[in-house]
Specification:
With 138 residues, the protein is mainly α. Helix content is 76%, strand content 7%.
């Protein structure tokens, strides 16, 4: 039963994160096509918008991690988390697939962490596409 609960939490996190990121990218694309700013400022606006969207994506996953830990679905081994910002840091590092956090998930939290890394890779790919479109805008 625990694995199904964790899977449900993970699927919800992937869905919310993807919808949120899509909304950001769609708005950025519309803004990019309408703006009359110089190309370098347009590019900066898109990059800052994407960065904000990635931070929000990491926040959604950090909340999902906290819920999973609260429900006893897993924990972390390594340094002990004492604040939400440390969970957010793990999520941000995991979402970018960098994987340099000083902790490792245990139990069913592996499932959520794995799906977060996969989702992060896909979202970065979508973001790169918008950056390329912005750079090629004439």
């Amino acid at each position: 039963m625990e694995v199904f609960t964790q899977l449900l939490i993970a699927i919800m996190a992937v869905g919310i994160t993807t919808a949120s990121h899509y909304s950001f990218l769609n708005r950025l694309k519309k803004w990019m096509n309408k703006t009359r700013l110089p190309p370098v400022l347009t590019l900066l606006g898109v990059v800052y918008g994407i960065t904000l969207s990635q931070l929000i994506a990491a926040l959604w996953f950090a909340i999902s991690i906290e819920i999973s830990i609260y429900l006893g679905l897993g924990a972390f081994k390594g340094e002990v988390f004492v604040t939400f910002i440390e969970t957010f840091y793990f999520s941000l590092i995991n979402l970018t697939t960098l994987g340099m956090a000083p902790v490792e998930p245990t139990g069913h939290l592996y499932l959520l962490a794995g799906l977060e890394a996969m989702t992060g890779f896909l979202l970065v790919s979508c973001s790169a596409s918008l950056i390329f479109k912005t750079m090629n805008k004439q």
